[in-house]
């Protein structure tokens, strides 16, 4: 099974929005998320994951995903390390007092990557399985580079209580949006964003972001895409504006 956004059930309670109440995750006209992040007693930080963080990232993935056929930690650590060596900004983590409690993994593939298309149609987890993705398929975030972003996961440690999952999940989503817009500032050309939705809450969140569902050959997979040129979603408009400004500098 391809890694997907089913773990959004650990983030924001979108049922509340369906009942007509104002939801913290609603995007405003500027493309930002007016999340209510109260002052915390614990020290938290959102940062790029380092090689030293990989074991904790893998452990968190094992909590988030109910996948039977996974690789051992040594194999996964080697794979993740190889990816981070090619592009150090693939994985972001949310830490509370030094502990990894949240994770965002976005794989930047080259638009011509045939192996990405093959892996997407396969039945192997991108993050916990023996997926055949090499560093040649991963693109670097450099000015002028074209990429397609596969949102592999955005998740919060499931053992946290509901209120904390909601608060930290809001922070993850907000920071993820910041990183997308920042790619525009840096002149990275994002052609499309891709994600798989497996739960009702995950699908609602993708649609909220502006993703559109497209036809996909696997009946057990719901594929969602944002075409960067065509999308009118607030976050994409903010990205395009940042990209346009970067080309004028």
Present the secondary structure layout.
Layout: H1 15-18, E1 44-48, H2 54-64, H3 73-86, E2 91-96, E3 99-109, H4 114-121, E4 146-156, H5 162-185, E5 189-197, H6 200-209, E6 212-214, E7 222-227, H7 234-248
Parallel strand pairs: 4-5
Antiparallel strand pairs: 1-2, 2-3, 3-4, 5-7, 6-7
Helix pairs in contact: 5-7
Description:
The protein is α+β, with helices and mostly antiparallel strands and 249 residues long. It is 35% helix and 20% strand. The chain has a single domain, classed as Aminopeptidase, CATH 3.40.630.30. It has a seven-stranded mixed sheet. Helix 5 (162-185) runs parallel beside helix 7 (234-248). The longest helix has 24 residues, at 162-185. It is globular, with a radius of gyration of 17 Å. 39% of the residues are buried.
Radius of gyration: 17 Å
- The percentage of residues in β strands lies in 15-25%
Proportion in helices = 25-40%
In the CATH classification, which architecture applies? 3-Layer(aba) Sandwich
- Tell me the major beta sheet: 7 strands, mixed
Give the beta-strand count: 7
Q: Strand order, main sheet: write it out.
A: 1-2-3-4-5-7-6
Number of helices: 7
Task: Name the shape in a single word.
Answer: globular
What structural category characterises the helix and strand content? alpha+beta
Which regions have little confidence, pLDDT < 50, spanning 5+ residues?
1-39
The CATH superfamily is Gcn5-related N-acetyltransferase (GNAT)
CATH topology: the name is Aminopeptidase
From N to C, what is the helix and strand string? HEHHEEHEHEHEEH
């Amino acid at each position: 099974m391809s890694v997907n956004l089913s773990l959004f059930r650990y983030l924001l309670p979108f049922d509340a929005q369906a009942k007509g109440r104002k939801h913290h995750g609603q995007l405003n006209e500027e493309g930002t998320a007016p999340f209510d992040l109260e002052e915390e007693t614990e020290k938290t930080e959102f940062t790029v994951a380092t090689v030293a963080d990989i074991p904790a990232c893998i452990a968190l993935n094992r909590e988030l995903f109910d996948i039977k056929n996974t690789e051992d930690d040594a194999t996964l650590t080697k794979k993740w390390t190889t990816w981070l060596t090619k592009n150090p900004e693939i994985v972001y983590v949310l830490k509370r007092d030094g502990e990894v409690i949240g994770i965002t993994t976005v794989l930047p593939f080259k638009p011509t990557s045939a192996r990405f298309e093959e892996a997407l149609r396969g039945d192997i987890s991108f993050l916990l399985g023996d997926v055949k993705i090499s560093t040649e398929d991963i693109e670097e975030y450099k000015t002028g580079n074209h990429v397609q972003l596969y949102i592999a996961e955005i998740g919060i440690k499931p053992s946290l209580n509901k209120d904390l999952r909601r608060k930290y999940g809001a922070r993850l989503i907000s920071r993820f949006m910041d990183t997308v817009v920042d790619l525009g500032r840096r002149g990275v050309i994002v052609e499309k964003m891709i994600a798989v939705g497996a739960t009702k809450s995950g699908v609602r969140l993708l649609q909220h972001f502006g993703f559109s569902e497209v036809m996909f050959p696997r009946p057990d997979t719901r594929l969602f895409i944002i075409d960067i040129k065509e999308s009118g979603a607030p976050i994409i408009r903010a990205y395009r504006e940042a990209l346009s400004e970067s080309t004028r500098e």
